[in-house]
Amino acid sequence: MIRILSILLCLTLLSSNIKAQQLTDRQALCLKGQVKRVTYSDGNSIAFNQQGKVISVKNKKGKYAKKIVHNKQGLISVALFDDQYYRWEFKYQNGKLTSIDMNYLYWDESYTYCDFAQGLPWLIKYESSGEGITSTVKAKVQYGDQDSHGNWCWRRMVGDMVETNESEETRRTLDYDESITRQIFYW
Predict the structure, then answer these.
(1) How far is it, in rounded angstroms, from Cα 70 to Cα 68?
(2) Residue 171 in 3-state DSSP?
(3) Integer distance in angstroms from the first to the last C-alpha of the chain?
(4) What is the full DSSP assignment across 8-48?
(5) Dist. CA 113–CA 116, nearest whole Å
(6) Strand duo 54-58 + 108-117: pairing
(7) In which residue ranges of the chain is pLDDT below 50?
(8) CA 134/CA 127 separation, integer angstroms
(9) Which residues contact 3 (CB under 8 A, 6 or more apart)?
């Protein structure tokens, strides 16, 4: 009896792992429905094919990814932009987006998402560094308006930002409050 229960438990865990690995990019980015494109108020945009795979990424400077690479497990997507030094790397774990790393010529940015509830991250840690300045933001996320599919259209992040300037040897803590909107287009 214990052997049968062990086999059932293993099969359940295996099927849940297979299901998590089969998430589309669209689902891993916490999007519901047949989303075709998401355009953010900061100018970034992501487009998906009908199967939910990322097919196009545009950065806030208006440049499109010239190459998008998906690893065989579907866990990491990398977008390389025309200027050869701009890169986004999306990382997924357990079927959820956990971080986005962005690398520029002289600047790096990293977003870490955690405390998922109802499929959305409720805590975000943002780090940026370059040109002698490092900023770290820890913010709680508030979600506002949703569309008919249940996707958020407005998000506000509130927390603290610690800014360190190496050349001036200064460190200061500031209040952080940022809102972003997005438009979602469907197939």
Answers:
(1) 7
(2) strand
(3) 49
(4) HHHHHHHHHHHHHHT--HHHHTT--S-EEEEEETTS-EEEE
(5) 8
(6) unpaired
(7) 1-21, 74-76
(8) 7
(9) none
